[in-house]
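Marked as duplicate of an earlier ticket. Keeping the data here for the record.
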Amino acid sequence: MSKSLRGWVKKITVPAASLQNNTADAERLIAALKPALSTGTVSIDISLLRNLPGLLRKQDGEFNCTLCCSQDHWTVLGLSPASDPAPLTGAAIDLGTSRVVLRLVDLISGDVLEESSFDNPQIAIGPDILARIHHTTETGGRAALQALIVGGLNGELARLCQSCGVEPETVLLAAVAGNTAMTHLFMGLDPQWIIREPYIPAVNRPNLVKASDLGLKLNPHARVFMFPNIGSYFGGDLIAGILYAGLHHRDETAIMVDVGTNAEVVLGNRNWLIACAGAAGPALEGGVTKMGMMAGPGVIDQVQRVPGSRELRISTIDDLPPVGICGSGVIDLAAALFMSGMLDIRGKLVPEKCDDRIRYQAELAHFMLVNGENSGTGRDLTISQADLDSLIRSKAAMYTILETISQSVGTALSDLTSFYVAGTFGSFINPRAAISIGMLPDLPLTTYHSLGNSSLGGATHYLNHADCLAEIDHIRDSITYLELNVNQDFMNRFSAAKFLPHTNAGLFPSVAREES
């Protein structure tokens, strides 16, 4: 089946009006649409209806009709002659807390026209969700936060359209995937009860919203689909990720991990899904060390140890002089230090094995990865013992989340044949290094699959598949959420995981470190 048949744009033939066929314009359009839709009710916005007579008389015969659907109710968003070369586009949006990613999609061909990203401008008010939610309780705070994200999106969408040679008015449909709080802030909803017991969001299924009601400068008839969330801590970005990964179609059980502000984990198959989230992300998002940064030009993304020695080699994004290190680089570094004996099983630096790389600041040991002469900042790039302690806690939390969720359904991590890692973290992480420090289970490397930006992928999938609404509802209704904050097993396992690679070395048979 072609993308145009399963997408939101339907090619139809609307018979011309005549004395023999004097049905009203709207009824003739709807009658032509119904065979293509098979079912459902069709409506036309009054603003489009006002222009419908002229649109139908521009050309006899074939038209491209762009629609959207909610609860089996279809709405006509646009109508144009099939011969019109102007593209009909959609916008896929990954609404991240720190970074927002956009993708412009041709709704007829399904092709990605262009992609771009920008820092979430709400960072100016608060770097994290909690600070932003607290800000909404101040006078004008909620409106200010919404204006920031909408303004950022309008500016970036305009630039994206310009680079593709199209106008923002060609964007008829947008799909937005974000966590529950980000969705609330984008829509201007009150988010304060998300963080207060009993932790209730304003809405779980925002569904379709008029773009103009949100302040987005798109086609006047455009709609925005908001991926649904499951309560306060499992958002639409994860639903989109599951849709993209296809976990809900699999016969065998698989697992997906997305590391951002939290580590969010989904385990399951076509019959059931279980999910949980925990605070394993901050130390891997650039917060673990003073030289920690999000992935970008000049950031160290890989650290490799020369076999049989304690010599370390680094690589940076775009091969620029190093200015910092991202999460994948930190994991590589910790693995290299541990495997060479420069880090002991408690995650503590071993000064006598670090040669001349140890520095002390206020009696706190630092390991120098790059000296100032070779860095892009002119300063030594170091990681402190406190930074490493933070990483150990994060890696222990990650592994414990994975172990707890798998054992909650009687599945051993060793039984998994597919392990999906999403997000920027998944694009850069070296599974071998993560296994070496006990962050990921000791599975064959072929088990691990990088999904890239699965949230954006799910949003793009929605734009290309009008039949995915049932899938999205199925995913949402199939998920059981596991609350870790009240799980005593989690705390017990967490203590055991705060060693390298683990208190139980038998869980990591492939990890053989050098003791020289």
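See parent ticket for discussion. The longest helix spans residues 141-164.
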